[in-house]
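User: Design a sequence. Structure:
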C-alpha cells in the first residue's frame, strides 16, 4: 500500500460523513456534563446502565456476553464485556484518562485583600498559567463536612448566571510583566480566583461566628454557608476544581471541529466508552478502563499505576469460574493487548518548526497511532513492537479505519507520556493511539469530528478483531 496523507473528507462516502457529524453530538453533551474526573465517572455509569451494564459487585457469576462496570473511588471506572474465551487467554483493553489540567482550590483558600475576596489555587497538570486569566471559570467538586456528609457542587456555568475569573494586569501597566518569560507572566500564587467585593454588613461577635463587619471574606462565607450549609473549615476536606466555564461547541463555518475544555483525554474516553457499550459477545473479554491522575504521572490509587485494574480483572476472573491464581493472572496480562488511548499533538502550521510534519498527528486524518511517546531519547515511553504495530495496522485497515502515525513534536522539542508504559509494565502488549488535538492543555482545545469518529471505529474494530 502506498504511503500517503489522506484527509478523511476526501476519502469517506456521504453515509459515513453523516455519521461523523452525528457522533460528535453525543460527545459534546458528554463533555458538558463531565468537567471533572468524578463527573466523567458519573456520566459513564449513566450511559453504561442505559446500555445494560450492571455493577460488578451485584453479580455472583459472569458468563460470556455479561456487561459489568466497576468504580474506583469515584474517580475511575472500568467497563467490561465478558468474552467467550477464558480470561487467562488474555483480554483486550482500551485505556484512557478522565482527569484534565485545571486549578485546584487550596485547603485553606479564602482570603480578603483590598476589598476583594479570593480563593487561592494550586494548578494541576501541565498548563500555561497565563492562559487561565481573564476567562470565565466555574467551580466543580465535592466538600466533605465535619459530620462526614458530602456535598457535590458545580457553580458558574450553564444553568448559573454567575461566573468567576482570575484577573490580569492591564496592558497600560504591563511593561514589567511583558518583559518576563512566559512561565513567569503569571505566577502560581497569582492564580487566585475573584469571588466578590461586598463587605459583611452585620456587627457580630467575631470570636463566635468568625465574621467581621466590613470584611468581604465574611460576606462571601455567609453566602456560601447559606447556599450550601458549609463553613470555612470544611474547605479542608474538599476537592474543588476550577475549570473553564466554556461549553463544548462546533468550531468553524463548516462545523468540522469541536472546541471544548478537557478534550485531553475525554475525547478518547468517550470514543472508548461508545465502542465498549456497543461491544457484543466478543471472543476476548473487552475492557474500557478510565483512569485518573494521568496529568500528574498516573500516581496514587486512582491512577494507572494503581492495582485497581489488576484487582478488578482478578475479581472478574473468579466470577467467570477461573481461579485467579498468580499464574492465571500473570498469563492473562502477558497475553493481553491494550490500546493506550490518549490524545496526540495535532500539527499546527503556525508552529510548524516544532513538529516533524511527516511524523505528526494531523487533523482530519483519523486516529493517530504512536509507536512511542516520551521525551528526548524516548524517555518515559512504551515503545510498541513492530509486530504489534503490524497487527493494529491490519485491524484498522480491514475495518475501514482512517489512521496515521504520530510522534509528539520534533525529537528535541519536548515530549510527554501516557498511561501506556504502566500497562505495558504488566506484560500487556500496549500501543498508543488517539485523537490529534490543537492547543492541547489550553482551557479551550480543538479536535476534529472526523478523528473522534475514526477513534471510536478503531476501538470497536480492536474489540472485534484482536483475538
Ligand atoms: Mn492525555
Ligand atoms: Mn495531557
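Assistant: Done.
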Amino acid at each position: 500500500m502506498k504511503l500517503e496523507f489522506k484527509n478523511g473528507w476526501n476519502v469517506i462516502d456521504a453515509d459515513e460523513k453523516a455519521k461523523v457529524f452525528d457522533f460528535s453530538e453525543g460527545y459534546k453533551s458528554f463533555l458538558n456534563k463531565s468537567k471533572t474526573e468524578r463527573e466523567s465517572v458519573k456520566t459513564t455509569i449513566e450511559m453504561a446502565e442505559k446500555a445494560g451494564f450492571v455493577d460488578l459487585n451485584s453479580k455472583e457469576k459472569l458468563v460470556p456476553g455479561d456487561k459489568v462496570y466497576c468504580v474506583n473511588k469515584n474517580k475511575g471506572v472500568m467497563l467490561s464485556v465478558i468474552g467467550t474465551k477464558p480470561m487467562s487467554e488474555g483480554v483486550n483493553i482500551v485505556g484512557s484518562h478522565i482527569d484534565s489540567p485545571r486549578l485546584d482550590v487550596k485547603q485553606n483558600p479564602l482570603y480578603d485583600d483590598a476589598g476583594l475576596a479570593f480563593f487561592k489555587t494550586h494548578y494541576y497538570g501541565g498548563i500555561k498559567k497565563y492562559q487561565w486569566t481573564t476567562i470565565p471559570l466555574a467551580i466543580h467538586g465535592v466538600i466533605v463536612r465535619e459530620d462526614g456528609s458530602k456535598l457535590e457542587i458545580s457553580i458558574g456555568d450553564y444553568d448559573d448566571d454567575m461566573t468567576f475569573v482570575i484577573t490580569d494586569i492591564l496592558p497600560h501597566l504591563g511593561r514589567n510583566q511583558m518583559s518576563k518569560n512566559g512561565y513567569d507572566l503569571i505566577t502560581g500564587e497569582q492564580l487566585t480566583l475573584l469571588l466578590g467585593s461586598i463587605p459583611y454588613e452585620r456587627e457580630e461577635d467575631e470570636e463566635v461566628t468568625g465574621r467581621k463587619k466590613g470584611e468581604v471574606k465574611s460576606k462571601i462565607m455567609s453566602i456560601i454557608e447559606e447556599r450550601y450549609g458549609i463553613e470555612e473549615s470544611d474547605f479542608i476536606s474538599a476537592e474543588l476544581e476550577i475549570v473553564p466555564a466554556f461549553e463544548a461547541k462546533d468550531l468553524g463555518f463548516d462545523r468540522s471541529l469541536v472546541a471544548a475544555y478537557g478534550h485531553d483525554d475525554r475525547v478518547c474516553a468517550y470514543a472508548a466508552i461508545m465502542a465498549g457499550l456497543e461491544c457484543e459477545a466478543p471472543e476476548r473479554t473487552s475492557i474500557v478502563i478510565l483512569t485518573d491522575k494521568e496529568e500528574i504521572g498516573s500516581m496514587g490509587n486512582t491512577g494507572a499505576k494503581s492495582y485497581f485494574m489488576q484487582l478488578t480483572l482478578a475479581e472478574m476472573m473468579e466470577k467467570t469460574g477461573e481461579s485467579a491464581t498468580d499464574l492465571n493472572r500473570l498469563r492473562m496480562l502477558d497475553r493481553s493487548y491494550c490500546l493506550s488511548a490518549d490524545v496526540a499533538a495535532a500539527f499546527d502550521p503556525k508552529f510548524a518548526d516544532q513538529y516533524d510534519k511527516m511524523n505528526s498527528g494531523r487533523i482530519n486524518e483519523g486516529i493517530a497511532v504512536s509507536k512511542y511517546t516520551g521525551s528526548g531519547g524516548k524517555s518515559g515511553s512504551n515503545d510498541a513492537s513492530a509486530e504489534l504495530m503490524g497487527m493494529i495496522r491490519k485491524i484498522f485497515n480491514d475495518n475501514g479505519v482512517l489512521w496515521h502515525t504520530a510522534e509528539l513534536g520534533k525529537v528535541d522539542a519536548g515530549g510527554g507520556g501516557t498511561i501506556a508504559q504502566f500497562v505495558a509494565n504488566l506484560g500487556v502488549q500496549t500501543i498508543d493511539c488517539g485523537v490529534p488535538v490543537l492547543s492541547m492543555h489550553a482551557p479551550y482545545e480543538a479536535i476534529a469530528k472526523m478523528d473522534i469518529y475514526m477513534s471510536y471505529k478503531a476501538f470497536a474494530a480492536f474489540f472485534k478483531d484482536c483475538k
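Residues 14-33 form the longest helix (20 residues). Residues 264, 295, 441 surround manganese (II) ion (ligand 2) (CB under 6 Å).
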